[in-house]
Design a protein that fits this description.
Blueprint lengths: L1 E4 L2 E5 L38 H18 L6 E6 L1 H13 L5 E5 L2 H13 L5 E4 L16 E5 L1 E2 L4 E2 L14 E4 L16 E5 L10 E6 L1 H9 L13 E2 L2 E2 L14 H16 L2 H21 L4 E3 L11 E6 L7 H15 L15 E4 L6 H25 L1
Parallel strand pairs: 4-5, 4-6, 6-9, 9-10
Antiparallel strand pairs: 1-2, 3-11, 7-8, 10-11, 12-13, 14-15, 15-16
Cofactor: pyridoxal 5'-phosphate
Protein name: phosphoserine transaminase
Family: Belongs to the class-V pyridoxal-phosphate-dependent aminotransferase family. SerC subfamily.
């Protein structure tokens, strides 16, 4: 079916469709060739404290270290409540010893600000930027504790590098890296606490988070006791010392061994595509497919206008055509049309973000699927523009 529009050629419905229409920014697409039969060896009905359970949990920790290149003297733990739980565990356990700077350029970063200011009642210095931008990192003093997101899942921006973080800093850097880990190089020597969830770049199952601690973060945990009570689920120390069991796979509460097996399968797949560098290449190829399309269509633009801070995972777009008077309604109509055609699921902008599209481009997504989606976006756009003309 062709969409007629005055003064231009009709836009024909594309023939090619994405083989996998799942472009959600979380939980994200499973890796190609994923099959639930891969989980057949999961030790279901067994205690996570039994040898078999501990071995699978330890394999998840060791595989994470291997693929992300985490230094040997950094601790890696599996914690409850996804990335949110990991970030809040770090904030409740570590903040309060030094002045704090909170950096926010999207919804989740803003949530960490709320935690620090309203829940922990810290006299934090808050620095914010609009969606599509980041704060001036040159103004950040890393002799203070600093909390920030590396990749803005809801805004499509990323921190370009860790050069702004001093090697001899006195403060701790607490980094929410949930949309960056396994897609971007993280400078471990500049990060003291790093968190992510399985459901993001590797397309794992929800409810489990990872927390990675530098030796400096461990020193803080063992030398500082926060003034507020810590629920059991947040406690990283025992008797004033780091609870080392957490970083050997002895989780604080009961994990899903099925989800653990799912994560292990994703780690195996990551190895098969070249580890971190292979995953980065796949994500950047996906971003390139979007960039090529946007470059040829002036009615569409990146929310992150500056390429140096543009995410290669959560790619956020906005419609710029002046004929659009209600951006939110227009974007929702485009998303609904694509959903009805079965070519793209869950690509609407985050509820707190500016209206538009959000296309997940992490390594589990095939570039051919991203390329196939782009003409459909044009078709849906023109269909909605034609509908506006009819109602004008």
């Amino acid at each position: 079916m062709a969409i007629e529009k005055p003064g231009a050629r009709p836009v024909t419905k594309p023939v090619a469709v994405p083989a996998n229409p799942r472009f959600s920014s979380g939980p994200c697409a499973k890796f190609p060739e994923y099959n639930v039969n891969m989980l057949a060896d999961a030790p279901l009905g067994r205690s996570h404290r039994a040898a078999v359970g501990k071995a699978r949990l330890r394999a998840a920790i060791d595989g994470t270290r291997e693929i992300l290149g985490v230094p040997d003297d950094y601790r890696i733990g599996i914690v409850p409540a996804s990335d949110t739980g990991a970030v809040e565990m770090a904030m409740w356990s570590l903040l309060g010893a030094r002045p704090v700077e909170m950096l926010a350029w999207e919804s989740f970063g803003a949530g960490w600000v709320t935690d620090a200011v309203k829940q922990l009642k810290l006299d934090a210095q808050v620095k914010t930027a609009e969606y599509g931008e980041i704060v001036d990192l040159a103004t950040v003093d890393t002799d203070n504790d600093v909390v920030f997101t590396w990749n803005g899942t809801t805004s499509g921006v990323r921190v370009p590098n860790g050069d702004w973080i001093k090697a001899d800093r006195q403060g701790l850097t607490i980094c929410d890296a949930t949309s960056a880990a396994f897609a971007q190089r993280l400078p471990w020597d500049k990060l003291d606490v790093t968190t992510f969830s399985w459901q993001k770049v590797l397309g794992g199952e929800a409810a489990h988070g990872m927390i990675i601690l530098s030796p400096r973060a461990v020193e803080r945990l063992e030398s500082y006791t926060p003034p507020w009570p810590l629920p059991k689920i947040f406690r990283l120390t025992k008797g004033g010392k780091l609870n080392e069991g957490i970083f050997r796979g002895e989780t604080i509460n009961t994990p899903s061994m099925l989800a653990v097996e799912d994560y292990l399968a994703a780690l195996d797949w990551a190895r098969s595509v070249g580890g971190l560098e292979g995953l980065r290449e796949r994500a950047y190829a996906n971003l390139a497919a979007v960039q090529a399309f946007v470059a040829g269509h002036p009615w569409l633009a990146f929310l992150a206008q500056e390429p140096a801070i543009r995410s290669n995972t959560s790619v956020c777009l906005k419609f710029t055509d002046p004929r659009i008077t209600d951006g939110a309604a227009f974007a929702k109509a485009v998303v609904k049309r694509l959903e009805a055609e079965g070519v793209a699921h869950d690509i609407g902008a985050y509820r707190d973000a500016p209206p538009g599209l959000r296309i997940w481009c992490g390594g589990t997504v095939e570039t051919a699927d991203v390329a196939a989606l782009m003409p459909w976006i044009e078709w849906a756009f023109e269909a909605e523009i034609a509908a506006l003309s009819e109602t004008a």
